[in-house]
Specification:
Layout: E1 2-3, H1 15-20, E2 28-33, H2 45-54, E3 59-64, H3 68-77, E4 82-86, H4 93-102, E5 106-111, E6 129-133, H5 149-159, E7 165-169, H6 177-183, E8 187-189, H7 192-195, H8 200-212
Parallel strand pairs: 1-8, 2-3, 3-4, 4-5, 5-6, 6-7, 7-8
The structure holds D-xylitol-5-phosphate and zinc ion.
Zinc ion (ZN) is lined by residues 6, 29, 31, 62, 169, 189.
Length: 213
């Protein structure tokens, strides 16, 4: 069970310090938004390059952008260990996944809540992680969508014995993480649950314990 906190709800003027508050986490989840694929704008490549210099933690980049075919490889080249693109935005997802792996990153594909996993079942061998959105992408602090639970189950079945991580993102908290784990998720993004906590690192450990329970 891996906990990968999102820094979307952190203090963006002090990212190095904020990342230092989640030392027990398995990776830092960075949400890149372009105000086209989603109706919100966050940070891009220059900030990720700075984060790379500021921490040795695994960087888990979640690209919520148009034209990931053009931009995702740049994040791998910037030293991110994992780069996630949305299948809804990728023109050539297989080619893109192969390119990310060629550049030494883990390749990951993300699906919005209403996007069926079955449409992408044939390319599972091309990725190292599947991210299932459990809210509509764009903002932190939204309510977890229970309607995604059956898709988590189906994805776990489709993965079979493959060593592919199954990540959920959106509304994950002490209240919802058990449901996700029980359905088959093994990697959990939590943004507001972690950074709204008085002690973010303690919350990371509590979330991991809840996922294992
Ligand atoms: C939403 C982002 C998430 C977000 C999660 O579009 O992809 O990573 O930061 O935040 P919470 O955990 O607050 O839903
Ligand atoms: Zn995310």
């Amino acid at each position: 069970m891996r906990i990968t906190p999102s820094i979307l709800n952190a203090d963006f003027t002090n990212l190095a310090g904020e990342i230092g508050r989640i030392g027990s986490a398995d990776a830092v989840h960075v949400d890149v938004m372009d105000n086209h694929f989603v109706p919100n704008l966050t940070i891009g490549l220059p900030v990720v390059e700075s984060i790379r210099k500021a921490t040795d933690m695994m960087l888990d980049i979640h690209l919520m952008i148009e034209d990931p075919d053009r931009w995702a490889p740049e994040y791998a080249e910037a030293g991110a260990e994992s780069v996630t693109f949305h299948v809804e935005a990728a023109a050539a997802p297989v080619r893109l996944a192969r390119e990310l792996r060629r550049l030494g990153a883990r390749a990951s594909m993300a699906l919005k809540p209403a996007t069926p996993i079955e449409a992408y079942a044939d390319m599972l061998d091309e990725v190292d992680m599947v991210l299932l959105m459990t809210v509509e992408p764009g903002f932190g602090g939204q309510k977890f969508l229970d309607l995604v639970l059956p898709k988590i189950r189906r994805t776990r079945e489709l993965l079979g014995s493959r060593q592919i991580w199954l990540q959920v993102d959106g509304g994950v908290s002490l209240e919802t993480i058990e449901r996700c784990a029980e359905a088959g998720a093994d990697t959990f993004v939590a943004g507001s649950a972690v950074y709204n906590a008085a002690d973010p690192d303690a919350m990371v450990n509590r979330l991991r314990e809840a996922a294992v329970a």
